[in-house]
Amino acid sequence: VLILCSDSTYAELSGYSESESLVKESLSGIMMQSQGRLIIATFASLISRIQTIIDLAHLNGRNVFVTGRSMIRNLKVAKSTGHIKDPHSIIKPIKEVNKLAPDKVVIIGTGSQGESASFITKLSRQTHPEISVTDRDTIVISSSPIAGNEPVIGNVIDNLFRLGAKVIYDKVYRVHVHGHAKQEELKLMLSITQ
Fold first, then answer.
1. Which of 105, 117, 149, 177 is least enclosed by beta carbons within 10 angstroms?
2. DSSP class of residue 88?
3. Nearest C-alpha neighbor of 176 from the set 46, 4, 33
4. pLDDT per position in the chain (194 positions), as tens?
């Protein structure tokens, strides 16, 4: 071993990071209870969570629509490398989203940090070209705010509530776990490396 480049974001936190399986369990419950469209904003780079959403959508008889430039680009790359699998062909082009009944739709998009040009921000401002929020929509912000982004994300969430959607985010439901190692995992990595 010449060098270990290790994550230190949560090096000050004791214990272990929580499992992504907790998010899967939460999203499964939300998807089963949602009677309209389910709209999920998450990190475009979080390929494992996108795959989880695709798998859950299939189990619940829903199709998946992906929007946001980085989300579409990452999905294309991940499918070509086999990191995203869609064996039942439930991923459909966003232009077809309004052809299905709302309870057959899951939309995955960008903007979990409230970026100004992202899908979820456009949705909250009613400026997205294909999708408008209705009071039957359930919207999940599947992330936690990066320090300094709290006011921006708060505005997005407030706007979505004002439009009548049911909004679920990490402070009210387990829809995100951190992807950074805590102390015990970092110690394990150092031990294995040594």
1. 117
2. T
3. 46
4. 999 998 888 999 999 999 999 999 999 999 999 999 999 999 999 999 999 999 999 999 999 999 999 999 999 999 999 999 999 999 999 999 999 999 999 999 998 888 888 999 999 999 998 899 999 999 999 998 888 888 999 999 999 999 999 999 988 899 999 888 999 999 999 999 99
State how far the Cα of 26 lies from the Cα of 171, in Å rounded to an integer: 13
Phi, psi of 192 (to 5 degrees): -60, -45
Q: Catalytic amino acids?
A: 7, 180
Torsion of CA 45, 39, 51, 95, to 10 degrees: -90
- Based on its alpha-carbon atoms, the radius of gyration of the chain, rounded to whole angstroms, reads 18
Give the Cα separation of 143 and 7 in Å (integer): 19
Q: Read off the tokens for 124.
A: 């909250």
10 with 17: CB under 8 angstroms?
Answer: yes
pTM, two decimals, is 0.90
